[in-house]
Amino acid sequence: MTVRNTLRDHGQRYRPRMACLKKAEKVLLEMQDPKSGVKSQPQRLVITTIPHAIIGEDIVAWLADRFQVDAREARSLGSMLVSLGYIYPLQDHKRLVLRPDASLYRFQTPYFWPAQQWPVEDTDYAIYLAKRNIRKKGILEMHEQEQYNRLHKWMNHKWDFIVMQAKEQYRAAKERKKPDRVVFDCQERAYWVVHRPPPGTVSAMDYGLDRRVDPNADEAKTPDYYERMMIFTQQSIMRPRVKSSVSIGALVKYCATYKSHDPFLSKCLPSNPWLTDDVTYWTLNMPNVETPTKMRVERWTFSFGELLLDPRGRDDFKRFLKKEFSGENLAFWEGCEDLKWGTAATMREKAEQIYKTFLARGAPRWINIDGKTMEITVSSLKHPHRYVLDAAQTHIYMLMKKDSYGRYMKSQVFKDTLKKALVPEEHKFTDAQLEQNANAPVDITQLCRFTTPMPHLAVYSGLADSPSTNASSSLSILAHPPACPSPISVALDSTSAFERRAETGEADRDGEVRTPAEGNACKSKMALFLRRLLRRGCGPSAVFASLSPKCNSAAGAGGRIQPISPDPSSQAPPRRVGNFFQIKVDIPPECRIYPIESEDEEDENRAALGAKEIICPWESLTSQNGTG
Amino acid sequence: MCDQTFVAATFGPCESCDKASPLMNIYIKTEAINYCSFCVEKMACQGLQAGESLASLKRESESLKKKLDEERNKLNDVELNKVAEKVEVLSALAIKTRRVLKGHNNKVLNMDWCKDKRRMVSSSQEHGVSLPCTWVMACAYAPSGCAVACGGLDNRCSVFPLSMDPNENLAAKRKAVAMHTNYVSGCTFTNSDMQLLTSSGDGTCALWDVESGQLLQSFHGHTADVLSLDLAPSETGNTFVSGGCDKKANVWDMRSGQNIQSFESHQSDINCVKYYPSGDAFASASDDGTCRFYDLRADREVAVYEKDSVIFGASSVDFSLSGRLLFAGYNDYTINVWDVLKGSRVAALFGHENRISRVRVSPDGTALCSASWDNTLRVWA
Questions:
Q1: B69 in contact with A at a CB cutoff of 8 Å?
Q2: Distance between CA B2 and CA A611 in Å, rounded?
Q3: A244 contacts B374? CB cut-off 8 A
Q4: Which of A236, A299, A333 to mutate to test the interface with B (most CBs of B within 10 A)?
Q5: In 10 A of CB A327, how many CB atoms?
Q6: Among A176, A55, A189, A195, which Cα is nearest to A122's?
Q7: Is B288 helix (H, G, I), strand (E, B) or coil?
């Protein structure tokens, strides 16, 4: 029982349903059946004879037989019944567990069964404690004494009533026959052990938090409620459905397809790290490992979604698309994901940028979608919201799924990857080796993109960069106002810091201005989880203004996303990224905003020439800066 | 990718008030119309019309529900356990406790795995340094691994950036994102760190922009506390499922805020909902001691996982990687492992000494973690 703190009212009122109580009662009735229930007999305890006592072993055996379960489970179920107070122990009455030996138990009288409807009253508890105190002073336990004192304080106003009741009950009890009285005392004592457990014990009556809405009440329904239900039900009726055989068949097929990949059902190669304490499995399956395992590559063949979900797979797919010069589809799709899941502040700009890059007539990376979708998209862009590009995105996704994906599976890129894929040998550790593995120190600071979060919010740049980038970045973006200048006003041929650097920095073959200290490790961190590497064009939007004022370019200077291609010769000449997504003019040079992998020569030239600015059709409407 | 995700949110002039806004497609006596959400509300709130009474409305509503059941049954040509007869039986599982994580001084209420497959965040009842309330019921790891979100009785869900620096005062960096009018029961990040989806005791779910704290979308439809939610795993999925004290499990479209599907077959509060790995089905755990499996495309419940020896409520469920196994944690301190397809129990895991509050399979499926009110977490494999 808690004294309700009215100051901090969390709006909770009602006890949750304890549906188990009704079921437990049914079981109890069965157990008490004279013919088929648990055998009971009178037992001698100290000087008195307790009628209808049952033995722990018998309870376990009966439960195991009734429910056809093994002894352990029967014991567990029995313990729960004891802890709920349906059965109480005669010896060691404070520990409410079922001992599968010759310990004695009794069924609790239904009068004392736990009730769902109301909590057990403090008043009754006070009367009980007072009664015991009257009977014999000093009999109360320490915790009971404390409770008694507390209740005395809080119920002082009705203490006379309580004492009077206690005396009355004590007197009535004396008039009973001794055996009855002993039995009743046992029962009552057991009841209070359940409902006012000694501190430090586990109580089955502890249900956690109350609910806001009374689950046991029938709410009064209003006409509105029925109207809404009917509208909703009507809609549900008209909803298209699939035949059960088809959909269930798909579920079964999914299980079968993934069975060999499920560590609970098939062996993990080389071994499950949790079983052998050897982390080779995780090392081999890092998000951006150079050579994936065969199992991993196999998963890419299961569905297009699996391929995209795996950063290594997506990367491989990108490589393939680059060869086919059709990378814009994937780039568009990723841009749309970024828009959908990104921060609200930059949403409008992102939508406009995507339009200008992919959808507008004469756009540098124009994607081919059908006229109807284009029409819907362009008209919706007048009122941009984060799902404005949904139709186009879905179309492109299906296009990739039906066309590019199939060709990728047959391509040389995929075949090469598959050929190189690893099949690790299964570990066969001896017991001694397992012992050794278990005792080896675990490095919790190991380098992985998830374990090197920036101290000041790379969170919100979505990129976990190495601390070194922090140090090396020379520009620190202080808390700028979040509003970005309208992207429309930024002409494509404006010279950005990036471009200036790119022009001068010919030394960097791949256009990367800063070489991260950890070389490959950093490359592997340039995870191709692109939807998570939400690049915010404006540094400040990625930073909490409320957090560190020294929001350094950690947020913006993520380092570019580059495909995992170790071969420098396949790298394109310096990329003119700034042209496409330049939102702020003074973005630090290290910042790359969108991944552009499949550069066409055309793109390069166009950028170099400073292609003419693309005007969005709604430009006249949205002339002010938007923040989402 | 499920066909159902093609429902594009339409935007245009409302057929009733002519204002341009996101539209809901509803049906009035089988005729499809597009109203904006305000007009739909107006339609619902007209009160009793002439010739109607509460009882007549109730009758009408019931008959519509019957009709829905009939529609659902029309396409019910086979049961799951029938199809599953052809599937081979699972061999005995040897799942044991591999780690016991101690460190909390009080009941562990929730936990979530990090995507790096080895780290996890857990929340408990104790006095958190950073949160002013004692019960932290919701916690989630951000996809990037750089932040955690947690909330509970303070009616808020806050996001904390993580740091390797032990001296860092994380409490100061806390950003309160979600604000409900009652306790926050569950939270999850969407596909990025920038959006947070929360469920609350006030009966609503909400989508928030983390950075600005702005409410992006709210989801109304439950008539009692919402206890749990789960995001659809599909790449192109824009839906999530929520379960509440009104015994209903609702599937929502995140874009429009609309309730797409609703399932009411449990007999008690739904404590937890979780999608099947393919995104075409989900499972729910309830206080009535059963777990149920719902097929979204067939639009009906296809399996019930119950046993007469299991009388205590299930508090949490999760699927193994292939979806063949369903791990369910119960209030009788045990975890039962069910064969999803055949409907039988394949294992029972003992070890905890108090209620299981949460079970979660690691992102790569190698282990199961259970959080319990006995102040510990256990990792099983």
A1: no
A2: 41
A3: no
A4: A236
A5: 23
A6: A195
A7: coil
Q: Which residues of A are less than 8 Å from B141 in CB distance?
A: none
Q: Answer whether A28 touches B (CB < 8 Å).
A: no
Contact of B100 with chain A, judged by CB distance below 8 Å, is answered with: no
Number of helical (H) and strand (E) elements in chain B, helices listed first = 3, 29
Q: Are B302 and A248 in contact (CB under 8 A)?
A: yes
Question: Chain B contacts of A385, Cβ < 8 Å?
Answer: 11, 22
Hey, what are B276's tokens?
A: 């099947």
Check if the beta carbon of residue A473 is closer than 8 Å to that of residue A587.
Answer: no
pLDDT tens track for A446-500: 544 444 443 333 223 333 333 333 333 333 333 333 333 333 222 333 333 333 3
Identify whether the C-beta of residue A53 lies closer than 8 Å to the C-beta of residue A90.
yes
Taking an 8 Å cut-off on Cβ atoms, the answer to whether A462 and B144 are in contact is yes
B89 interface with A at CB cutoff 8 Å: no
The Cα angle at residue A78 between residues A72 and A79, in degrees rounded to 5: 90
Taking the whole predicted model, whether its pTM rises above 0.90 is answered as: no
Q: Answer whether A450 sits within 8 Å of B119, measured CB to CB.
A: yes
Q: Where do we find the tokens 């949790």?
A: A274
Whether residue A275 lies within 8 A of chain B, CB to CB, comes out as: yes
Q: How confident is the model at residue A613 (pLDDT cuts 50, 70, 90)?
A: low
Per-residue confidence band for B173, with pLDDT thresholds at 50, 70 and 90 = confident
Residue A113, pLDDT > 60, answer yes
Residue in A with minimal Cα distance to B351 = A76
Euclidean distance between CA atoms A626 and B10, whole angstroms: 23
Check whether B141 has a pLDDT greater than 70. Answer: yes
Q: For the residues of B184-248, what is the DSSP string, one character each?
A: EEEEEE-SSTTEEEEEETTSEEEEEETTT--EEEEEE--SS-EEEEEE--STT--EEEEEETTS-
